[in-house]
Amino acid sequence: MPEGLNILTIKGVSISFGGLKALSGVDIEVIKNSVHGIIGPNGAGKSTLFNVITGIIKPDSGDISLEEKKLSISKSYQLVPAGISRTFQNIRLFKEMSVLDNVMIGHHVHTPMPILSILLNGKKSRKYEEITREKALEALEFMGLEDKKDEIVKNLSYGQQRLVEFARALAAQPKIILLDEPAAGMNPTEKINLLNIIDRLRKKGYTLILIEHDMKLVMNICDRISVLNHGKIITQGIPEEVRNNPDVISAYLGK
Ligand code: ADP
Ligand code: MG
């Protein structure tokens, strides 16, 4: 693969929890402006990989580089300025707050003002609040959720809440968006909508990494797929290569 095409390079990442090797020598290259799927049975290490990329977990060994620069995230607030945002396997939203407020939190990290001065509500902070609101509304519009902006999150369907989280990740204006099982709990119509959103983001130049169990969705949307089993990459490539790989089939059948 020619240099410069990659946006994210994961090299030799290993991490153990007690005696359990959750990731073992994982190498993945994510091509810029692509959708990269991460699949594998439950407990394979997929979410752990996201936790390592986002600095929640420090690996025992290995490196992660973003655009050829070593990525070292030790505090969660460093993540978005580095160009990465994510969603979680278990939705993490402020359920009692409005949709718009939840998404505005995603953009806030870009405002160069401390939270205190925003709260004091000076003239400058109002300007930043306006920008934050504008970016949040754009992200909601992209998800087709603009008419839900004033709803309280807990009143939305599960699938809609997943999109609110996605909108929050998008409002942060990242280069890479990590989605941890975004289709979980979605109905077939919501899944088609999700597929569309991901495709439109790719066309806009974003890079997405997608952990997903719905094979149809994964095979339809991903440019490349990495398959994890027991913390190890068993194969990676384009969907057609992965689909028919006997190791993938047996990993899923539990043989
Ligand atoms: P997946 O997302 O592929 O289902 P995970 O990455 O969540 O799998 O988990 C991989 C393995 O690591 C599992 O056996 C899980 O129990 C374990 N694990 C994940 N995170 C931790 C942690 N923080 N502490 C201890 N064990 C963990
Ligand atoms: Mg997981």
From TrEMBL:
<feature type="domain" description="ABC transporter">
    <location>
        <begin position="8"/>
        <end position="255"/>
    </location>
</feature>
<dbReference type="InterPro" id="IPR003593">
    <property type="entry name" value="AAA+_ATPase"/>
</dbReference>
<keyword id="KW-0813">Transport</keyword>
<dbReference type="Pfam" id="PF00005">
    <property type="entry name" value="ABC_tran"/>
</dbReference>
<dbReference type="InterPro" id="IPR032823">
    <property type="entry name" value="BCA_ABC_TP_C"/>
</dbReference>
<dbReference type="GO" id="GO:0005524">
    <property type="term" value="F:ATP binding"/>
</dbReference>
<dbReference type="InterPro" id="IPR017871">
    <property type="entry name" value="ABC_transporter-like_CS"/>
</dbReference>
<dbReference type="InterPro" id="IPR003439">
    <property type="entry name" value="ABC_transporter-like_ATP-bd"/>
</dbReference>
<dbReference type="InterPro" id="IPR051120">
    <property type="entry name" value="ABC_AA/LPS_Transport"/>
</dbReference>
<keyword id="KW-0067">ATP-binding</keyword>
<keyword id="KW-0547">Nucleotide-binding</keyword>
<dbReference type="Pfam" id="PF12399">
    <property type="entry name" value="BCA_ABC_TP_C"/>
</dbReference>
<protein>
    <submittedName>
        <fullName>ABC transporter ATP-binding protein</fullName>
    </submittedName>
</protein>
